[in-house]
Amino acid sequence: MTLNDRHIKNTSFTPSPAHTALKKAAKVVGIAVGAVVGIILWAILRPIFRGVGWIISILTAIGIIYLVMTL
Asked: What are phi and psi of 36, to 5 degrees?
């Protein structure tokens, strides 16, 4: 059985240069936005989490001191 034109699917897609350039530009913009968001989160959330750690430590120390003083 031989294949003829009806059985051969010609679905190869070659994107245009504009589509390829747009895809690369979108990738670069996505990486840049991700880097900016990451730096902002690192600069803002890291000190907050450090501060929360200190607050938890201080409250724990106060609780232990209170427990020892009341026993």
From this structure: -65, -45
pTM of the predicted model, to two decimals? 0.50
pLDDT per residue as tens digits for the range 17-33: 888 899 999 999 999 99
Cα–Cα distance measured from residue 17 to residue 29, given in angstroms and rounded to the nearest whole number = 18
If DSSP states are collapsed to H, E and C, what string results for 23-70? HHHHHHHHHHHHHHHHHHHHHHHHHHHHHHHHHHHHHHHHHHHHHHHH
Confidence label for 54 from pLDDT (cuts 50, 70 and 90): confident
**Sole residue written with tokens 């009806």:** 6
